[in-house]
Backbone:
């Protein structure tokens, strides 16, 4: 095949390489521009620094006496930490699962070897109220756990729903024992 009058025999025309270069630069600029627009939108969906700071919480258990409960704040939500007595543990273990609306054994709600410590969300599963029962003067309902006065939900000493409109047990929050006297929530 011979070269035509419009195209040199030694390669493409110089204006064709300029056009290809301009297309490449324009495409790259469009991709960089789209990334510059999308990145702040995606980054804004990440949790803020104050939320990340609350992702883990260490709790010293030594000041919590037997039979006492405290409320700590984790991720802006209350968490009940209760140092249960032997009687509270036995009471929770003795409940037949067939009597529970949300059947869950007490042993599944505590860490092995640490049955005296119950760590659950402090938010009622009915409408998000905060049940009473962490202070010694608080009413604990008929089952000795927590009582939500808003609509009458009652939880036992394992945080399981026993009476009232709440549909589920107080959720166990993720936690680990760092030592026998310190836990890390989160």
Residues:
């Amino acid at each position: 095949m011979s070269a035509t009058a419009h195209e040199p025999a030694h390669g493409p025309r110089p204006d064709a390489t300029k056009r290809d270069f301009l297309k490449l630069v324009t495409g790259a600029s469009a991709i960089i521009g789209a990334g510059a627009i999308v990145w702040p939108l995606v980054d804004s969906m990440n949790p803020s620094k104050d939320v990340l700071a609350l992702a883990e919480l260490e709790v010293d258990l030594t000041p919590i006496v037997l039979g006492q409960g405290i409320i700590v704040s984790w991720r802006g939500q209350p968490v009940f930490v209760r140092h249960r007595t032997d009687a509270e543990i036995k009471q929770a273990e003795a409940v037949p699962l067939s009597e529970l609306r949300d059947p869950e054994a007490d042993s599944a709600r505590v860490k092995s070897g640490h049955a005296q410590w119950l760590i659950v969300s402090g938010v009622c599963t009915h409408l998000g109220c905060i049940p009473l029962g962490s202070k010694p003067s608080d009413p604990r309902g008929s089952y000795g756990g927590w009582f939500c006065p808003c609509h009458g939900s009652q939880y036992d000493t394992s945080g399981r729903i026993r009476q009232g409109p709440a549909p589920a047990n107080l959720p166990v929050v993720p936690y680990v024992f760092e030592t026998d006297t310190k836990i890390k929530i989160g």
Summary: The chain has two domains: 13-46, 51-185. The longest strand covers residues 77-83. Residues 72 and 79 are 5 Å apart (CA to CA). Residues 13-46 form one domain.
